[in-house]
Amino acid sequence: MVYLKYVSKNLEEILAGSLLLVMVTIAFVNVVSRFTFQFSIAFIEELEIYLYVWLVLLGSSSAFKRWKHLSVTILVDRFPQKMQKGINILISVFTISFFAILFYYSLQQVRMERLMGVTSTSMDVPMWFYTVGVPIGCVLIIIRLIQRIIFLAKEGGSQA
Predict the structure, then answer these.
(1) Is residue 159 part of a domain?
(2) Tens place of pLDDT per residue across the chain (160 aa)
(3) From the centroid of its chain, how far is CA 48?
(4) 56 C-beta neighbours (distance < 10 Å), count
(5) Cα 18 to Cα 105: distance, rounded to the nearest angstrom
(6) Which residues of 64-78 are buried (b: 16+ CB within 10 A; e: fewer)?
(7) CA–CA gap between residue 160 and residue 2 (Å, rounded)
(8) Which of 71, 89, 157, 158 could pair covalently with 84 via S-S, beta carbons 3.0-4.6 A apart?
(9) Rounded to whole angstroms, how far apart are CA atoms 87 and 30?
């Protein structure tokens, strides 16, 4: 039970850390192969690029969870605490709207890639395996933003 709670609280970090470990490992293997055997493994660069998309979205979700994403607060900080709370809730709602739109269009992209049978250049893997990271990342971000709105509504404060 404790393990499950830990995983749900740190899902993005666990997945992002695992992806980063995989990316570093395969990059290291490629570097060793290139300098030892004068042979570069072509698909590794492609795989790293696609895994990076997943890594960025998982990192974004983690940043939203901690309220550590990039933001300009110079105007919001000038308002009283109660107004800051309302403004941050409003900003979160707008951000959810953005990621909901991105979710919709990224699902369309995944659907089209599946219908057309698009595959990656070097590995001949269906492209939607990589592209599905965008809607999954959007869902994680939306969940974290909803959690933030609930926190702001209950606890208050501009940052936590």
Answers:
(1) no
(2) 777 788 778 888 999 999 999 999 999 998 998 888 888 887 888 888 889 989 999 999 999 888 887 777 788 888 888 888 888 899 999 999 999 999 999 999 999 999 999 998 888 889 999 899 999 999 999 999 999 999 888 876 555 4
(3) 15
(4) 14
(5) 27
(6) bbebeeeeeeeebee
(7) 23
(8) 158
(9) 48
Asked whether residue 150 is assigned to any structural domain, the reply reads: yes
Would you say residue 136 lies in a domain?
yes
What is the extent of the structural domain holding 6? 2-154
CA angle, 21 as apex, 3 and 56 as ends, to 5°?
90
Q: How many structural domains comprise the chain?
A: 1
User: 78 near 103, Cβ under 8 Å?
Assistant: no
